[in-house]
């Protein structure tokens, strides 16, 4: 039986019901679970980690991403575009993805998330170029398994292309019959409900403006048949409000409720433009919202009313969103921005604090993904998904009066020192264990240049409008 102990941690944030922070504490791990937390543990173990200059938190949970987009970071043509123009332009590059680019794009995004202390990663993949089949999404599952991340891929879909009034090119959308068949096969093949599962899945039609109402209804029916969750984008921009009202005769949330998309098995990405009645309804139904502040600011979409959503009772977690609208997959930086962004406007400086934000990044995400009975807290019996940060660094110097809060207040993109997933070390001394980082960087840069070159026949993404 494998075992390790993290000894004499400077501080550990349990993220339990009391928001307890423990000092000078040990954490004992056997196999894939936390066995004990306490001071001066004397159990014999195979490996000891010296935590004397370290803080530990539960592994963070990313609730929204598009891993393929790491190939399209910092593209000049869309650096200053709003969402719809951003989508229309980038689709011309996205349509050229292959299983190989998907694998290395996923290795990049998952690797960066692991290095920032994120251990459970959800991805929303909805792009299936007609040249390929399901091997596109299978490639990201392969990358997650190789890196040792706990993974929650969502089988997305688009059925409404340009010829049917949608935004995506017709060669990246699929028929509704095929989508439903492939979605059921995806669930059957990959959804693992066993204790300590490393892979669970959900269904995730892309958005109200890229699929039909019929597909949304049938996807909800299929997901509930198999007891899996549902995910999509919603209320991201005011343009989306206008689109839904003009084409569907309803606001986005009203429409989604009309097709059975509300409740504890549903979570939306963004949720910026919900009004007061909608926020109340989300709270009543315990519907989830993935808060993605960096992407929302990058695209000028707005700031989600997260304090109001939490107060109403909605489930809220954090997401880095696609790396073509964030240009990063750094979960700790996302949490830092979430700490600060709600302190302006009507909420004021007391709207958030470091521990409540850390809870969103850990336990909140676990609740959204339905994993909260095993992940999101440092607690005996819970899965050993833990991020450890070395505070003996100039970034934190002078800020150790509150070492847990220092992770967010003092952070300047510091890597985790050690990351443990399912009891196994996947990041050690700030480096990935299972795929050499140099290999990921070289492959990613080569393929990113290649895919932009191949997209030039459609549109030159390297020039601004």
Explained architecture:
This protein is α/β, with parallel strands linked by helices. It has helices spanning 83-94, 99-115, 135-147, 176-190, 213-225, 238-248, 252-258, 276-285, 293-298, 306-312, 331-341, 354-368, 403-409, 437-455, and strands at 3-13, 21-30, 33-38, 47-50, 54-58, 60-62, 118-125, 150-157, 202-205, 229-234, 266-270, 288-291, 315-318, 386-390, 418-421, 424-428, 431-432. It folds into two domains: 3-57 and 383-432, Urease, subunit C, domain 1 (Roll); 60-368, Alpha-Beta Barrel (TIM Barrel). It has 14 helices and 17 strands. Strand 7 (118-125), helix 3 and strand 8 form a beta-alpha-beta unit. Helix 2 (99-115) packs across helix 14, helix 8 crosses helix 10 (306-312) and helix 11 (331-341) crosses helix 12 (354-368). It is globular, with a radius of gyration of 21 Å. The protein starts with a strand and ends in a 10-residue tail after the last helix. The mean pLDDT is 95.
Write the topology of this structure:
Blueprint: E1 3-13, E2 21-30, E3 33-38, E4 47-50, E5 54-58, E6 60-62, H1 83-94, H2 99-115, E7 118-125, H3 135-147, E8 150-157, H4 176-190, E9 202-205, H5 213-225, E10 229-234, H6 238-248, H7 252-258, E11 266-270, H8 276-285, E12 288-291, H9 293-298, H10 306-312, E13 315-318, H11 331-341, H12 354-368, E14 386-390, H13 403-409, E15 418-421, E16 424-428, E17 431-432, H14 437-455
Parallel strand pairs: 1-4, 1-5, 6-7, 7-8, 8-9, 9-10, 10-11, 11-12, 12-13
Antiparallel strand pairs: 1-2, 2-3, 5-14, 14-15, 15-16, 16-17
Helix pairs in contact: 2-3, 2-14, 4-5, 8-10, 11-12
